[in-house]
């Protein structure tokens, strides 16, 4: 007899069958991706697609809520969505045979579209979603049949000569396949992803690379680094350097096959290999990088010593034509940035193609093997990682990744100062307390940093000796802190004599502004 309770039980098993079919889909696709096309993982492609389409407020919410873990949060969310959608497909298949299979087929088409429209996709990229779909549909159809057989056996009147046999057999056949398929999918899926991550050749290639010694090195003047506990180091170690990009998985680029194409409005299209770049001779440049998403007081800013070649020399080989006013740089993953042509050709600006960061080849997540670094412009309009093309063009003609997504096509860095210590929420002891932080005004330089306690008089802080105008400086002021709560505010003046913008602005469309003012507890 089908009681409402046993009816519900079959629905639940149908959902389980759907989840197993979904897992088989993903596992088969991961395995196929491993064999045929590394970047053609359906789940990662869909994730990347989601990154590209989420509206700006949601993206800002993700960055402020999850910070550097925004990508993990996205993957967890996607996983849950897949789980629910697969369960529904399983129930559909049980209620109306074929419907669930059609749903999986649809998922295959959608994920296939997400895959083949990615920048790195090859023809082989069709295989993972196709094979995954076949695997998922086959399992779903078989499980659906077995589940119905089990239900029919359990509701049919017992056959006199074989009272309990069929019901148990059908039940066992369903549960057996569910378990085996589910377990193998989990093992194969996880193994596939792990093998893919571990054997990703990039790290091995990067380790093996030996860069020629730079012709010139950055000399750090004495007094460039202040000794204050809690103050950001002058040079940000690679491991602590902020990372911001739209890449769900770090692109793997082999410098052996990497080329940089310079085309568009040029006298001559040219193509450079990694060796060509190295042969130009490397020089060292200290440049502070800043993200447009950096809030007042935020950590999306870092200072590194880069090795590379001037972009102006590379562009000169191609010969930009008159009328051009923009360089559209393109990454291997399709990301683009719009940089004013003048910012990368002016003699006074050290805009570079960088191959090394703080004495080692660029870390994969910071753009290995080659990225752009342009002092004075926010990263999203200048610092293209995994760069493969420089198209000389115009702002009227071309648009970069973030432009239709609510950010300005041009975005010079708004110079700023930041308080590193003491921190709100970390009480300090009364007495002499060093108040310290960093300030940056790339290409111009910081003239003065001023501190105000409890909205009192602005007093100049002591500055570290700058490495150059493209890097941040450190500042410190001794504060005679009395017990209670106090406001500590900081602002900077650049070498043009401009005062840091006081008015608060959000990060969109062209960077935050405002003086940092922190509430500090003294005990
Ligand atoms: N290929 C690619 N390059 C990119 C981005 C990106 O999303 N993709 N983001 C840019 C942004 S917004 C910033 S702030 C800098 C950050 O560089 P980092 O991650 O090395 O700190 O990289 C820039 N280059
Ligand atoms: Mo950024």
UniProtKB/TrEMBL annotation:
Top-level taxon: Bacteria
| Record key words, sorted | Membrane, Transmembrane, Transmembrane helix
The alphabetized list of GO BP terms reads: sulfur compound metabolic process
Please name the Pfam families in this protein's record.
Oxidored_molyb
Q: Which InterPro entries match?
A: Ig_E-set, OxRdtase_Mopterin-bd_dom, OxRdtase_Mopterin-bd_sf
User: Which residue spans traverse the membrane?
Assistant: 12-37, 72-92, 99-117, 123-143, 174-192
Q: Which GO terms describe its molecular function?
A: heme binding; molybdopterin cofactor binding; sulfite oxidase activity
The protein's matches in Gene3D superfamilies, at most eight in alphabetical order, are given as: 2.60.40.650, Oxidoreductase, molybdopterin-binding domain
> Oxidoreductase molybdopterin-binding domain: from which residue to which, for each copy?
248-399
Q: Which PANTHER family match?
A: SULFITE OXIDASE, MITOCHONDRIAL (PTHR19372:SF7), SULFITE REDUCTASE (PTHR19372)
Q: What is this protein called?
A: DMSO/TMAO reductase YedYZ molybdopterin-dependent catalytic subunit
- Taxonomic source organism: Microbacterium marinum
